[in-house]
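User: Some background: our group keeps a shared notebook of sequences we're curious about, and every so often someone picks one and asks for a predicted structure to add to the entry. Today it's my turn. The entry only has the sequence so far, pasted here. Could you supply the structure so I can complete it?
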Amino acid sequence: MLGQRIMWIMWPAFLVAGLLEILVFAMVDPQDLHWFGQPVELSRQGVYTLAFLVFWGIAMLASGLTTLLSMSPFEVNRCPLEPDQRPAGCPKQGGC
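Assistant: Of course. Here's the predicted structure to add to the notebook entry:
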């Protein structure tokens, strides 16, 4: 289930990052970029790669938040430990 959720986050984010890469660099030449008033010292390929990874990371954060917010209260509040492994006094001691 965890692997499936990770793919729910990463795959749409990958597609969005690719689309953003196309849209941004259709209008911006990487050689014209400046960082704090200085020209960027990366090659075009380096700028494309770095931008893609930034876009992908931001899109993964958005997808992850969506996945988190779509969880049911049971999934959020369940105890990850088996009932016999829970410490004494655990509020979920009864196996809920």
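Suggested note for the entry: The chain has a mean pLDDT of 87. The two ends are 20 Å apart (CA to CA).
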